[in-house]
Amino acid sequence: MNARLHEDEARGPTGHAGERATQQVLLAELLRPFAATLLPQLPARWVVYGAGEVGRALVLACAALGARPVAFVESEPAGFPDEVDGLAVWSPVRAREEKIDFFVLGTYASAEGMRRTLGEVFVTGERAWTVRQLQAPAMSLPPGEDLLERAHVVLAAGRSMAEFLWLEANKVERMDATVAVNAADRRQFHLDRYEFAATFASGRHVLDCACGTGYGSALLATRGPAASVIGIDLDEATVAYAVRHHSRGGVRFLVADAGRLDMLESGSVDLVVSFETIEHVPDDLAMLGELRRVLRPGGRLVVSTPNNWPVEISPFHVRTYDEAAFRAVLGGWFEVVAMYGQWPSSAGRPGRMALSSATDESSPECLVAVCDVP
User: Fold this and answer.
1) What is the DSSP letter of 54?
2) Where are the beta strands (DSSP E) in the chain?
3) Does residue 361 register a pLDDT over 80?
4) Is residue 46 a part of any domain in this protein?
5) Is residue 243 part of a domain?
6) Rounded distance, CA 118 to CA 130, Å?
7) What distance in Å separates the CA atoms of residue 288 and residue 315, rounded to the nearest whole number?
């Protein structure tokens, strides 16, 4: 059995069959941590009791980790085909005759239901069965009634089920605006900033500082088009995702700290893009100093931050800036050429990015500064 094969199957069918296939792979990924705890306990010959959706998903999760049972076991196997997912379906009597000494229960049953099943099915005959582990796996299912629908769309976009679940779990901090995990208006809000930055990127060597999943780096390369783009991010898993899905000619991704860009020579880039980063870093001055160092004379910085968001509502932020504070911190290293505000579509101004003005009737959600090296 092959996890990749099942992911491909999940992408293909539509309707009820496609939904069931996607759900199977989704369950398998959620069960994978539990399957990993089973592996050290498994003998050479083991079976899974229950050939339903959870049992099948558990087998798929174990197979992805290199472990495969001998068969499924069902109390009434006549209700099942002779094989399910390439494994025979046995009765408990057959399992005892085959000298199977380890059953994994793949079921939604409660702990009491599991005990009852063990008592009725396994603790009979000449052999005495003992319970080595009676603990249901903890599965943290991402919220949302449309989870399967989103999974279908994301799988069709070439992501694996594991990547879909990773994007779901990290959707607040690690968005990929090119796939439908986050809401469409939020994805567009982030894409619009990169579209704006791309107007400065033509023919330039660009650093995308805190590139996240890398979609913006790819956009800068294609829409600028930039001569080259280096995307850096502190998180290894995020950079690995960027490499898998947004690498292309002239774009490369590296794991690096925004406050220590040792891999870049001084004056080696023409444009730095850094969106919603400065409010995250422990030392904003160190970050700006490094960005100033790697920019050539006459280079440009396009940088954004949420506008006056309280730290209390932003678990990943360590400080907040209003326009005056943002101008002040940037002004220590750069000449602030222009300050823009950006409003989301929920504010009734879809796609609007406009020069900031003290007389504007509403505050923008984000501030976007265009700065030059003096």
Assistant:
1) H
2) 47-49, 71-73, 83-84, 87-90, 103-105, 205-209, 228-233, 251-255, 269-275, 295-306, 335-342, 353-355, 366-372
3) no
4) yes
5) yes
6) 9
7) 22
Q: How far apart are CA 166 and CA 219, in angstroms?
A: 22
pLDDT tens, residue by residue, 45-78 = 888 888 888 888 889 889 989 999 999 988 888 8
Q: Are residues 116 and 198 in the same domain?
A: no
- DSSP three-state, residue 213: coil
Tokens 């969106």 found at:
275
pLDDT digit string (tens) for 235-285?
A: 999 999 999 999 999 999 999 999 999 999 999 999 999 999 999 999 999
Contacts (Cβ under 8 Å, ≥6 apart) of 159:
167, 179, 245
What φ, ψ does residue 373 adopt, rounded to 5°?
-75, 120
Give the residue carrying structure tokens 């496609």: 18
Q: Which helix (H) or strand (E) holds 158?
A: none
**339 and 215 both lie in a single domain:** yes
For residue 266, give its domain range.
Answer: 184-372
Looking at 73, 102, 122, which one is the last position of a domain? 122
Number of domains in the chain: 2
**Which residues make beta-bridge pairs with 251?**
229, 248
* CATH number of residue 256's parent domain: 3.40.50.150
